[in-house]
Design a protein that fits this description.
- The structure is a single chain.
- About 35% of the residues lie in helices and about 20% in strands.
- Among the domains are: about 160 residues, Roll (FAS1 domain), CATH 2.30.180.10; about 140 residues, FAS1 domain (Roll).
- It is α+β, with helices and mostly antiparallel strands.
- The longest helix has 16 residues.
- It starts with a helix and ends in a 12-residue tail after the last helix.
- The protein is elongated and about 85 Å long.
- A seven-stranded mixed β-sheet has the order 2-1-7-6-5-4-3.
- The C terminus is likely disordered.
- Its main location: secreted.
Amino acid sequence: MKMYPLQIYATLLILSLFLARPICGAPSQISSNSVLVALIDSAHYTELTELVEKALLLQTLEGKVAKSNITVFAPSNEALEMGLDPDFKRFLLEPRNLKSLQSLVMFHVVPGRVGSENWPGESGSGHDPGEYRTLCDEGEDDKLVLTRESSGQKYVGGLAKVTRPDDVVRFDGVVHGIDRLLVPRVVVEEFNKRSLREISAVLPEGAPVVDPRTNRLKKNSVSPVPAGAPPVLPVYDAMAPGPSLAPAPAPGPGGAHHHFDGESQVKDFIQTLLHYGGYNELADILVNLTSLATEMGKLVSEGYVLTVLAPNDEAMAKLTTDQLSDPGAPEQIIYYHLIPEYQTEESMYNSVRRFGKVQYDTLRLPHKVVAEEADGSVKFGSGEESAYLFDPDIYTDGRISVQGIDGVLFPMEEKAEKNATEVDTRPQVKVVAKQNRGKLLEVACSIVGAFGQDSQFTSCY
């Protein structure tokens, strides 16, 4: 088909207009000198840029910038790294909480240009604080109040201080650096609801049936227990069947899906004992001589809490060979120093001050340890073999509490029973162990060596 020059010109004009038209639904291309590009390139706000990318809001903000000016109140990297709670950050970055993250990011953006020269006047000076609607789009909760003190210091939302006013100024917007994250109320409420759902104790639907012959739950009688719910079994039923030098798993009600990382927590508190100093003998017993570290880790993973009364090295060195020679003696000694409750120095001291003597259950059933107030501290046991709370709160993480004491405790009932059965009138010579780290390990190795089992323990070489 033959086309005349006028037709060719019209065709080219229509084609050029069509190509210049943006695709439906896509934002117009923004300038490389845009305020959004400058914000992304700034070294002061890389943490905020990461949140914008995680919230999938780059294209949305490009569209806003292309249409009108914007003002961004940008928390600095230091504000987000040091001031942002790890649990809250984890909540924001979960894919199912994308809407909350988007609301939080948009709460820092105001449509329109608010520079330092037109910042609202100070409150109380006759000028009302400026109230600006953000892009959060949550009704009345999406507004920010801008104020200024008589000294000239500017604030956003009443708490966030403007540390870098007019930090980025471009033709299409301005960025002010602030010292903290701005969180809309809708995000705070959603985080609180989610946190309560995660930590609240959910009781099982049906009461468990215990077999009186085995003292264990009958099969097919346990309803599924949500993660984080309190354990179904008493702590004694979740313990290993008996003391043993071989590692033994601790059966518990939580099944294979544990909510707490007990193994890491036990490793952490043992490592803390070693760094703290003066508790190496106890660490040897937990790690080298027994399977107690493994058992404690499984108990904590099942949801139980423990308070460890940790005798220091000086106290452990006073243990005699007779006290350690019986099979399972190290386990029984440590069991009496494990309280199946979470107690701190403050909680125990307040209890003994209020009630006088307090009895705590131990994992050495049925023996209890008695605590009372003495000399402004907490004293455990009675008589010559009592022990004082010597190093309080060596380790407290909400699941395991470690309290250092200056003596080794023994049940009063056991001591009375031993005295009643003694018939040998010959003088008993007690061999006191030297105060050297690893003495308890040597004693245990000599015991198992007598049975020809030392080849099982690498620590005995």
